[in-house]
Automatic annotation (TrEMBL), chains A, B:
Top-level taxon of origin: Bacteria
GO terms assigned for molecular function: DNA-binding transcription factor activity; transcription cis-regulatory region binding
PROSITE patterns, per the entry: HTH_LACI_2
Protein name as catalogued: LacI family transcriptional regulator
Keyword annotations of the record: DNA-binding, Transcription, Transcription regulation
A Pfam family: Peripla_BP_3
Keyword check for Transcription: yes
SMART domains, per the entry: HTH_LACI
Record CDD domains: HTH_LacI, PBP1_AglR-like
Annotated ranges, domain HTH lacI-type: 19-73
Length: 360, 360
DNA sequence: TAGGTTTCCGAAACTGGTTTCGTAAAGGCG
DNA sequence: CGCCTTTACGAAACCAGTTTCGGAAACCTA
């Protein structure tokens, strides 16, 4: 660390000086305390004065410096996001959209996003603690909520506002947290309903490792869909622990080699569903006729295969935007228990599903 | 906007009060000005006093509040990153690693990362301007540098420190900017050298649209590699404008249907190289024997195919970390012209390349 | 019209730091 | 040993805001 001589060179502050609240006050013939209260909506300012101040502020391009405000208020208008580096799929191709959604929404309200990362729980706690201690963020967005999420417990204990992407406990009454979630089970039910309406009677399901919360939710939706459609649940047609494209292909081979193979396969993720395309090519099966497929996620590649994969298009951008909006509302005083949103993932029909070829 | 009554409720500040510089000063029997100067390395503090202060600060867990410092210094120890939402590939699977690299390095130095996004140039300028005006960041990291990048020009004009991922002008003397880059051309040369050493004489190249800067760089590397190996450059073997897996497959078909087909194909991106696997399966070709392939990027999926794709593993995490380090160094006063780094992408050998099958 | 309220603004304290400036004490020199 | 520098710290101003408090003027009411 280099020594600092008595007179520290200050860098050239040649950029035109920004307008401060005192400049604004002087221009208006008021004191800065009045201007501050006018701008912050205090009730002891005359409406006419408030309007004058607002107008002049806009005219002079005045914008308060959040850091200076933070010294007094403790709020910096910054949202925090902690990425988990040990996430096996690196958040796939969705991270950019997700971040875009958060930042665009935050930007509209004059907030910003501070991101950090951690590769273990202890590191996460250290990171969060530092961000809070340094007053760099006002609240957190938690992606990838798990059942009984340690982050939620940690932040709750510290009375730090946060919103979760995904609910921690399903069915049970909420713990008063704020969340945004996509109806995974509902999408799977809708897929089964769709396939059953087309005439499919044996529909298989291929899902990710059961350690993922969403894997269980989607599997439950599959089973519920079968029940709704009046179809029996055959355990042979349900394969879990499938994460990669190649594993998805392997699952398809096993299913098609059954004595009574399914006519349709519902994949819990697009990435694994693409493996079925490889198998279809191997075996000369026409997807959408000989074998129907439906995926989930809406990854870009799903549109590019032939025929395009029918899937549920998760809108990461929208998720990010809503999460930001929910957190900002909470930071402005809304009760977190009121800030919950459950949305449906819309179906994006490709050509990968159709009526089963009638056996003759 | 709701009215604020005269006495604003302040939220429950029940969390134990943080130690302030004045607490520290009192505990030491010094004034806060002395403590501040001791902590910031001023030369007019006795070494013994400095040590005493440092020790007590550690003991009491004192950490200055960056926002309060910022009011006076104008520096907030925050790096800015502007994502471009219109990037066609959404930064692929690399964004999480890249962000992880930046934030981990920044965190070590006590800095944080503020990200924002834009979907057009004017939006980018507005976003950057707001971040600067609000003093939310001290400098920027620019991903995806293009030739003659408008962002660099914009920030230069405002005298805002920044580092670029990728050089703007190659060959020409630098404009005094700071950058980090991966030697694209060098990797392609190395690939050709490797294939030539294995005995390949006709090596094709499949590259992305020429509007991408890196596409041209990699193509140049291919050509240089051929020249170094003493091989002729056959324009028929060079296919550009290929971005997706399916297009990569199509390119492979065209090349293999030539009267004198190549024995090896160098793909500028892994995603497109995977298309050649589909073609090999179609035609019963054994990859690594009948057809050699080398890719570039090191995407996760490249390890999972059979045989694994030989590729150049770009280390996004490292790139992020180094960019953060370069920017922080610049913000601490180092001349940006001295802060440049060119790294090689290391080869990650799979089994997709080998000696050509001898024609008989 | 006197007396009590309200309304509305200014003055000043405050936030948590940094930096300038002044000066007492210690050290160097002849 | 006296004078001139250094050394090392304290006092106070400062940064850009917010918030508390007090009081003059305007508004009611009787």
């Amino acid at each position: 660390m280099e020594e600092i001589r008595r007179t520290k060179s200050h860098g050239d502050k040649s950029r035109t000086r920004r307008v401060r609240i005192s400049d604004l006050a002087q221009a208006l013939g008021l004191t800065k305390s009045t201007v501050s209260r006018a701008l912050n909506g205090y009730s002891d300012i005359a409406p006419t004065t408030r309007a004058r101040v607002a107008k002049m502020a806009a005219q002079m391009g005045y914008a308060p410096m959040p850091y200076a405000q933070a010294v007094r208020t403790g709020r910096v208008r910054a949202l925090g996001l902690v990425l988990e580096l040990d996430a096996p799929d690196r958040y796939g191709p969705f991270l950019a959209d997700f971040l875009g959604g958060i930042t665009q929404e935050a930007s509209l309200e004059g907030w910003t996003l501070t991101v950090s990362s951690s590769s273990s729980r202890s590191e996460m706690e250290a990171t969060v603690t530092r961000l809070l201690q340094e007053h760099k963020v006002d609240g957190f967005i938690l992606p990838r909520t798990q059942v009984d999420d340690p982050r939620a417990a940690f932040l709750s204990a510290k009375h730090v506002p946060f919103v979760m992407f995904g609910r921690t406990d399903h069915g049970r009454p909420d713990a008063g947290h704020s969340w945004y979630d996509i109806d995974n089970a509902g999408a799977m039910r809708a897929a089964i309903t769709r396939l059953a309406a087309m005439g499919h009677r044996r529909i298989a399901f291929v899902g990710p490792p059961a350690s993922f919360n969403f894997a269980l939710l989607r599997r439950d939706g599959y089973r519920e869909g079968l029940a709704q459609a009046g179809l029996a649940h055959d355990p042979v047609l349900e394969i879990m622990e499938v994460a990669e494209r190649e594993e998805g292909a392997e699952a398809a081979r096993r299913l098609l080699d059954l004595p009574d193979p399914p006519s349709a396969i519902l994949y819990a993720t697009d990435a694994t569903a693409l493996g079925a395309y490889d198998v279809a090519r191997e075996r000369g099966l026409e997807i959408g006729r000989d074998l129907s497929l439906i995926g989930y996620d809406g990854i870009p590649e799903a549109r590019l295969v032939t025929p395009p994969l029918t899937t549920f298009a998760v809108d990461s951008h929208h998720a990010g935007a809503r999460l930001a909006a929910l957190l900002i509302a909470q930071l402005r005083g809304t009760d977190p228990a009121e800030l919950t949103e459950l949305v449906e993932a819309p179906l994006r029909a490709g050509g990968s599903d159709g009526p089963p070829r009638t056996r003759e």
